[in-house]
Specification:
The structure holds 2 protein chains of 2 kinds. By secondary structure, chain A is an alpha/beta fold. Chain A contains 8 helices and 12 strands. In chain A, α6 links the parallel β8 and β9. By secondary structure, chain B is of the alpha+beta class. Helix content of chain B is 45%, strand content 17%. In chain B, β3 and β4 form a beta hairpin. Classes of the chains: A alpha/beta, B alpha+beta. Chain B: This is ATP phosphoribosyltransferase regulatory subunit.
Chain lengths: 229, 365
């Protein structure tokens, strides 16, 4: 029996994942041509499956793969009560990026969530609608702001180019992922001092819901030993 | 009992409760399962998305599976209601449970009783509580009560600025932000880095980025003005913070709690009118035969619920089953009628019973 391992199907994330396993003595790679989403492994107990990084949380949750490499932000966003459904086996040290709340640098009066909350209250009185925060991280942002007691905001969906929405006047603030902050700055935005929602990195996850028979458990133990986990 | 049998029993129990409420003079009303989302979002904010099912109607926009009956019943009453008016209803409500225990149902029955208008709020509070409690006397439930009006009165009575009081009032239902504000006003939290320099700067916009977005320079200047005023306002006296803490942490049998509150009122006369209303309510409950000595009073009760309660709040619990949610809950929500009535206020108090829990507890007995 083999363990199905979900891996990002393209780009830097895929290359880094291959390198991480290679450094631990497990050679993974693409099979076939550039355009073919197939992968191979030199260890018979591991069957790599190439998937979009955004779909790996769902496949882990459903138990259709035993293991998966994806961003810790995506698992937290896409899987409700994720700790009960997947286990973090190892942070992998690449793909670091922060999910943060950012507002225009022009808002010199807003540095903290406390300021943002006060600005939300005043904005609603002045404009007759709630202050809009654009994001693709709906669950992470809402849970964070609820826990922090921020009120009178509205989440609006933004699946890309989120840094541009303030200039485009379709939202007043954003909740987005950033690695260097360069794009935020280029678009006249700044991160709130206590606005870090989640520090994300590529992580090896184990599905708690996949079929874990005796053979799969033995293979996992073997793998843990090889990876030094 | 098999599941279908339990469901049949729960439906029968809901009908029995409806008949009980009707015997108290309530008119039976209905509400649509699909409610316009905008009104509920406006009332409860984004938090409700984590607790209710939001879906999309191609023509009507965002709609929500009704998370409770209160809002539609209030809207109906504000459009065409008599005074006083008593309403009863029974039906399913829908709640997302992702933040709670997975074993909790996302769809369950509620049977409710709501009382609008009337001249005596204390009598109305007592009537609603007694009507719900007398519907299920066989379960011997533990009663807990609180009073959001006392917390609001304590905030209003603080010797501090109007903007500070308004900010605290806004966050009574969000304990964490309420606490953060109290700490800041008491001078226990340092200012954000650079704040003092910003407020003293001749041109606060000197290092600002490009002027983008809907929030204007004028709005930012107005808030800078408030921040300057705020920096000059003296810290909240420690004694007043202690008083709020004492009120929020109060947990005692109702008669003892009244004594404690009378003691607190010595130092905070602003509590007087709210305390008087609580005393009148307790008298009204006693006249209706409620054993008030067995009621637990909790100063923070009702602060974290979905509802919009701003006065009397209560719950009925199965003492032997702390794992179960309350069997009945309710309270006063005058402020909700102000929002939905566009300025017109009607005193309103009501509560719900969960028939499935009633049947479950009877089955276990």
């Amino acid at each position: 029996m083999t363990l199905r391992l979900g891996l990002p199907s393209k780009g830097r994330l895929m290359e880094d994942a291959f390198a991480w396993f290679a450094a631990r003595g497990i050679s993974l790679g693409r099979a076939g041509g550039e355009r073919e989403y197939a992968a191979r492994s030199d260890w018979e107990h591991l069957e790599p499956v190439l998937l979009s990084a955004g779909e790996i949380p769902r496949e882990l949750e459903a138990g259709r793969i035993h293991l998966g490499v994806t961003g810790s932000d995506l698992v937290r966003e896409k899987v409700a009560r994720w700790e009960e459904r997947v286990e973090e086996l190892a942070p992998m040290g690449f793909g670091p990026a922060d999910v943060v709340i950012a507002v225009p640098r022009f808002w010199v009066d807003v540095e903290t969530l406390d300021d943002l909350d006060a600005a939300c209250a005043a904005f609603r009185r002045a404009h007759g609608h709630r202050l809009r925060i654009a994001t693709k991280y709906h669950r992470l942002t809402r849970d964070f702001l609820r826990a922090q007691g921020v009120a009178d905001y509205l989440l609006v969906d933004s699946q890309g180019a989120t840094e541009g929405v303030v200039r485009g006047e379709t939202a007043e603030a954003i909740s987005d992922i950033t690695s260097t902050g360069e794009t935020l700055r280029a678009n006249g935005l700044k991160v709130l001092s206590d606005g870090l929602i989640h520090a994300s990195q590529a992580t090896l996850f184990r599905s708690r819901r996949a079929p874990w028979g005796e053979e799969e458990r033995a293979a996992l133990e073997n793998l843990r030993a090889r990876l030094g986990l | 009992m098999t599941l279908p049998a339990r469901r049949i029993a729960a439906r029968a129990e809901a009908q029995r409760l409806l008949a009980h409420f009707a015997a108290q003079g309530a008119e039976e009303v209905e509400a649509r399962v699909l409610q316009p989302a905008e009104e509920l979002l406006d009332l409860y904010g984004e938090d409700i998305r984590a607790r209710a099912f939001v879906t999309q109607d191609p023509l009507r926009g965002e709609v929500m599976l009704r998370p409770d009956f209160t809002v539609p019943v209030v809207r109906m009453h504000m459009e065409a209601g008599r005074d006083p008016a008593r309403y009863a209803y029974a039906g399913e409500v829908f709640r997302r449970q992702e933040a709670e225990d997975e074993s909790r149902p996302s769809e369950y029955l509620q049977a409710g009783f709501e009382l609008f208008g009337g001249r005596d709020p204390a009598e109305a509070d007592a009537e609603v509580f007694a009507t719900l409690a007398s519907a299920i006397p066989d379960l011997h439930l533990r009663a807990a009560m609180g009073d959001i009006g006392l917390i609001l009165a304590a905030v209003d009575g603080l010797s501090t600025t109007a903007p500070r009081k308004a900010a605290l009032r806004r966050h009574v239902w969000r304990p964490r932000r309420f606490r953060a504000l109290l700490d800041r006003y008491a001078g226990r939290t340092p200012l954000p880095e650079g704040r003092a320099a910003l407020l003293a700067a001749a041109d606060p916009f000197a290092d600002a980025g490009p002027e983008i977005g809907v929030r204007t320079r004028g709005e930012i200047e107005a808030r800078l003005g408030q921040l300057r005023d705020e920096a000059l306002a003296p810290p909240l006296p420690a004694g007043e913070v202690t008083l709020i803490d004492a009120l929020l942490s109060l947990a005692a049998p109702l008669p003892e709690a009244l004594d404690t509150l009378r003691g607190l009122e010595q130092d905070a006369p602003g509590l007087g009118p709210a305390l008087y209303r609580l005393e009148r309510r307790v008298e009204a409950l006693e006249r209706r035969g409620v054993a008030v000595a067995e009621v637990a009073f909790e100063g923070s009760f009702g602060r974290t619920t979905l509802e919009y309660y701003d006065g009397f709040v209560f719950g009925l619990f199965a003492a032997a089953r702390p794992d179960l949610p309350p069997v009945a809950t309710g309270g006063r929500y005058d402020a909700l009628t102000r929002v939905l009535g566009r300025g017109r206020v009607v005193p309103a108090v009501g509560g719900v019973i969960r028939p499935e829990l009633v049947v479950q507890l009877r089955g276990a007995a």
